[in-house]
Write a structure and sequence with these properties.
The chain is an all-alpha fold. Helices cover 67% and strands 0% of the residues. The chain has a domain of 85 residues. The chain is elongated and about 60 Å long. The termini are far apart. This is TraR/DksA family transcriptional regulator.
């Protein structure tokens, strides 16, 4: 009663699902922490004049840094959503660019990876 041609094994899919869920928990925690940071940075008073107040400029820089980390974390959540969809339609683990399988080690390190290491390097 084996089903040949079903692609990746059930165990492998389950392992990927667990990895994605764990990564999502981490990332959601990071988003929440960064949001708190950003809110407290925005609440800091005396920053009305960023251009002439050196302290204000530093605060503006810190805020911009926190914001960009927050954007990155949100983008990762989008990647995780997309990876879960690929897991459900059976295309997870294949490079979106060249169609070749993504190395197991890469998926372990970056469960939401869309491309194989070769394509990822070529882009840069
Ligand atoms: Zn590729």
């Amino acid at each position: 009663m084996s089903e040949p041609g079903r692609g990746r094994g059930e165990a492998e899919v389950n392992a990927a699902r667990r990895r994605l869920a764990a990564r999502r928990r981490d990332t959601e925690r990071r988003v929440a922490a960064l949001r708190r940071d950003l809110n407290s940075q925005l609440e800091t008073p005396g920053t009305g004049d960023d251009e002439h107040d050196p302290e204000g400029a530093t605060l503006a820089f810190e805020r911009a840094q926190t914001q960009s980390l927050l954007d990155q974390a949100r983008a990762e959540l989008d990647d995780l959503d997309a990876a879960e969809k690929r897991l459900n339609d059976g295309t997870y683990g294949s490079c979106l660019r060249c169609g070749r399988p993504i190395a197991r080690e890469r998926l372990a390190a970056r469960p939401a990876a869309r491309t194989c290491i070769r394509c990822a390097n070529r882009r840069r």
